Structure formats: C-alpha cells, structure tokens
Amino acid sequence: MARFLFTRLLQSLAVLWAVATITFVLMRITPGGPFDRERRLPPEVMANITAKYDLDKPWLVQYSRFLRDLAKGNLGPSYKYVDRDVNAVVSDTLPVSVVLGLLALGTAIVMSFPAGLISAIYPNSSMDRWSMSLATLGISLPHFILGAVLIWLFSLKLGWFQVGRWTGSSAWVLPTLTLAAAPAAYLSYLLRSSMLEALGEDFIRTARAKGLSETIVVLKHALRNCLIPLLTVLGPLVAALVTGSFVVEYIFAIPGMGRFYITAVTDRDYPLIMGVTMVYTAILVCANLIVDVLYCLVDPRIRID
Questions:
Q1: 38 pLDDT band (50/70/90 cuts)?
Q2: pTM higher than 0.85, yes or no?
Q3: What is the fold of 1-305?
C-alpha cells in the first residue's frame, strides 16, 4: 500500500505539472492580453502595469517564477480583483462550490439507487419504463434549461424556494436539483445495467438455491458486485460536480469558484485562471486516488501491490 501511494503521488505531481505547463503555454499563445482594452492605455501606463506583474519578462522567467510560487502554495495576485489575491478568492469561493457539489452528489445517489435497483429487479415493467424515461430526460436537459424551469415553477409560480445567492437551505434546493439531475440519471442507467448483468450470474443462482431471501441476494451479493463500475465513475463525478458547476452557479447567482473562473477567462486574469485550474486538477487527482483505494475495500479480490 505504501509503495502504491508513493507511486500515485509521483504520478499526481506529474499530472499537476503537465496541466500547469499546458495551461501556462495556452494562455500565452492566445491572442490578446489581460490589459488589452478597446481604448488603448498610454504606453507608459501599460509599461508600468506589465512591469508590476512581470509580464515584460521572458516566458521562461515567468514560468519558473510561477512554478516556484506554486510549490510554496502562493497562487499569485489577481489582475482584476486588485484588493484580493488568488489564494483569498479560492479560500472564499471553494467551500461554496464544494458544498454545492457534495449536496448534488448525495442527491444523485439517493435518487439513482432506488431507480436503478427497481428497474433491474423489475425489468420491462411500468416502473422500469418510467424510471428510465425520467433518466433519459435528466440526461437530455441542459443545466440552463432545467434550472430556468425549476426557477419558474417552484420559485416564481409556487413561491416554495428562494432563488439567488447562497443564504440558506431554501436557496440550496433548486441549484442542487439542477446539478444532480444528469449524474442521477447516468448512475441509474449504470446501476440498472450492472445489476441486470449481476443477477444473471451463476453465484446469484447459487445464492437463491441456498434459500436466501431475495433482499439478501440483491443487496448483499448482487449490489456489492455492482459497486466497482459505480466507484469507477464516482471519482471523476465527484470532481465534476465540485468543479463543473459553472453554469449552475451563474444561473442561481451562487458565489462559488465557477463564477470567478468564467470571469477570469473573460478578463484574461492569468493568475486566477492558473490558480483555479490547479485547484480543480488537484481535486480530480485526489478523487481518483481515493477511488483506487476504495476498490480494495469493496472487492477483496483486488490487491494493491
């Protein structure tokens, strides 16, 4: 286990370095700059600004300084938010995105497991058709359409939930449902197909022949064998929900990191783009590492060498 974790740590560092390098190069080769405006600044003002942020230095110098600061945990200043550095922006906004992502993940799991199990236990039944129809709808509807429909129905018409900001549980419901819809539908499909395959295996017939109840057969034997493919997608899914809520945060005016990422790209705020990208990459790498360790806990046949 120790050797495995050490190897994965080295691989994770290599992934972080590769993402940092590619992002740095892409930002520099893209036409335009962070301080370009329709009305050009005076040359002396532009010179002072570029010197302040070391943009007048060669790329190699900028890159080496970025890696040095990154190793120290310093993500640098923000070009747009001059009164806050990138570390402050991330520390203020990341918890909001994490809470939203975890709420959406929990909601997706709670919604998908009953739907997937019922569809697999009663295939081609009316419950199966209804569950899979709803799952298809959840996958097909984009976030901005589903969010708008939920706002119109449950906030404007019925007045049940608050819309906008992130001030309490009433404001959490609609964005959580919007973000959880597609993952819940995808997990339902995956669980249904895995359960149908597992229920047709020889060990399930053996368990039934021993007189075990159908509940034990489904939950203890079949479901446990279905967790491996679910865990495979849960790692990237956790990272996607935590880091991929840009549209939902924008629609519901949530002060999460996704909104700042969008404005950073628009404003060409290099340090903020780099900082948020590295945070997102670190979350994805950690999620995949945790999933690899969980494999051994779910399936004892898997060993980490």
A1: low
A2: no
A3: MetI-like fold (1.10.3720)
